[in-house]
Amino acid sequence: MIKSFLPPRTVFLLLGVAGCVQLYGAMPSWADPAPATPQVEIKKHSTGKEATLRLGEREWFIHIDVDQDRTMIIRTESDKGQEKSNQSEIVERPMSNSEVDRLVNDFVSGIKSTINP
To answer: Would you tell me how many other CB atoms lie within 10 Å of the CB of residue 96?
Structure first.
């Protein structure tokens, strides 16, 4: 028979604390309060660029199409698969590559700052 030097109540308390520490280490990653950062995907096309940001069931999208006469810009926002806003704009001149890059970067930065104030 093994004899303990600690009172039974203390032994149970220590076992309980040890069990909680083990459970905390085995908690799933979804239980961690991680900051909300959207997934960003940027694609370059032969005639322009597009970017998609996803955070949970929310999605933001911008598509820029440049031809020899004009630039077409489409921005959409959806939540749980339902479109919340859809904006289109036509610029009556072709934008340069640096202007397109700046527009996409500003769009992504603006969405990120809206999500994480």
So the answer is: 11
* Tens-digit pLDDT string for the chain (117 aa): 455 555 666 656 556 655 555 545 555 555 555 557 889 999 999 999 999 999 999 999 999 999 999 999 999 999 999 999 999 999 999 999 999 999 999 999 999 998 876
Query: Running DSSP on this structure, what letter comes out for residue 117?
Result: -
Instruction: Report pTM.
Output: 0.68
Q: Please give the backbone phi and psi of residue 30, each rounded to the nearest 5 degrees, phi first.
A: -70, -15
Question: 3-state DSSP helix/strand/coil percent for the chain, to nearest 5?
Answer: 35, 35, 30
Position 43, amino acid: K
